[in-house]
Amino acid sequence: MVRRTLGAVTAALVLAGCGTDQDQPAPTEPSATYELPPRPVRPDEVVLAGEPVVDGDTSFSLIGLSTGMEQLIGSHAEFEARNGQFVRIRLVVVNVGRSGVLFETGRQQLVLTDGTTATPDLTTMMVKRQPDTFDLGAGVRVEFDLYYDVAADAEPTALRAFGGPTLTDMKDAEGTDIPLQSG
């Protein structure tokens, strides 16, 4: 009888210790992040504060805006804006997909307050040694400038971003407008 009672008590204690923790959430640890060193803002640049926006398999973070630049200096040339002013957008693109994306800087459109758009100025992009078309590999991050030559009174409001084809937009015909929000 003592053995049965002792066995029953032992079994009850063992079963009590085998309970589930369904009532308590599993502890979560923050995912590790890279520590990127801060970069100084250029004298003629305004810091942009928008959140990253995804179009296709590409994440876009607009980080800087410069307007009203009447002339630019490259490593071997100095030249004036043909249409009135240069606008420069500093951005970071990240491939968030599993395959490479053919990224075309020439497709990224500057949206102006009157609803018109401008494409990057190829000559300025070359003189300032910025990329044209490149393969953005899976998980790759690239930071660069887009240069536009627009009318002196033009006011930029957004970047219409094209991040590559998707299953619902195979020709990458639809872009995503990202507002130019200063911080």
Automatic annotation (TrEMBL):
InterPro entries: DUF4352
Domain DUF4352 as annotated: residue spans: 50-161
Region of interest called Disordered, as start-end residue ranges on this chain: 19-40, 163-183
Top-level lineage group: Bacteria
One Pfam family cited in the UniProt record for this chain: DUF4352
Signal sequence, start to end: none
The protein's name in its UniProt record: DUF4352 domain-containing protein
Organism: Actinophytocola xinjiangensis
Lineage, uppermost ranks: Bacteria, Bacillati, Actinomycetota, Actinomycetes, Pseudonocardiales
